[in-house]
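User: I'll paste a sequence; please echo it back and then give the predicted structure.

Assistant: Echoing your sequence first, then the prediction.
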Amino acid sequence: MAAQQHYGELYPTKGDDINRYYIDSAIPGAPKHTGFVPNLADEETKATQAFRLFSTHYESPKLAYGSTFQQQATIRIHSATPVNQAFFSEANIKHLQDEIRYRVWLKSDKKHTIDPQRPDDLKTIMRSYYLQYSANVPGQERKELEDLNERVLAFCVDDILGAINMYLYNRNKLLEYPEQISRPINPHIVGTKSAEFKGFIM
């Protein structure tokens, strides 16, 4: 006959796993984590979550004015040039989306695979870097396009990795309570033995 497990013991016994004790003594079959949201990482919980860290977003290339983002990105600021027409093209945006996903995967030691990013956010970043760093020098179009793409990729990849790391850090904080603070230590006590007791003075 299997030994009966007693729950609700007042104190753990020597050699007991303290975390296991608190979980088992509270509720049989309790979650294996002890944080504010202990079942956050459970498979059945993850399958029913209503949110994802990165979600695929679809947007039609047609804007409200009947033209494409390629034509509208620099309207009333720059006229159409080979650089801005190539940089803001749908083909280049797709290239950046694919390259962002690949570089995030590579830079995270192949641990994180993300979805394509929200097109509006990516286009805002692209437009910002174009207006800051574009030169439109004739004959240097390919070099300038590569430079603009690299600037966008460097910013996006670092920003996404930072967001992932912060998400995982906060997620872990919800899974586990912080480690308990150790007992205070008196630094003035030296050695392992106390002075010999000589008796009370009468």
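The mean pLDDT is 77. The chain is about 45% helix and 0% strand.
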